[in-house]
Amino acid sequence: MWFVLTPYDPFAIILDVMSMLQIRTDEVYTTKEAEGFLKISNSTMKRLLKRGFLKANKVGRQYRILGKEILKLVSPELEKQATDSYLKIKEKAVNKMNKW
């Protein structure tokens, strides 16, 4: 018998939680490993690094990310920070448009 995990399957949710439990705060991860934990694409990872939402250290030509930084990314505090950043950018854009 084969089991197919769907996004709404409770087993899929348990597997997601278990993968997040594997992230150790003091461990160092590559961008590929972080992409796997966060289930994001390479381009999204680059965007998060470039905009400073995910802090990393460059070692040679590659980035290394602490586990605590990955866990910070999925915390509710980051959502507030992202919302605040968006509102500041929106306010600047509106002010520029009003000056025209």
From TrEMBL:
GO terms for molecular function: DNA binding. InterPro entries: HTH_17, SinI_DNA-bd. It holds the Pfam family HTH_17. Coiled coil: none annotated. Residues 28-73 form the Helix-turn-helix domain. NCBIfam families: excise. This is Helix-turn-helix domain-containing protein. It comes from Candidatus Taylorbacteria bacterium RIFCSPHIGHO2_02_FULL_43_32b.
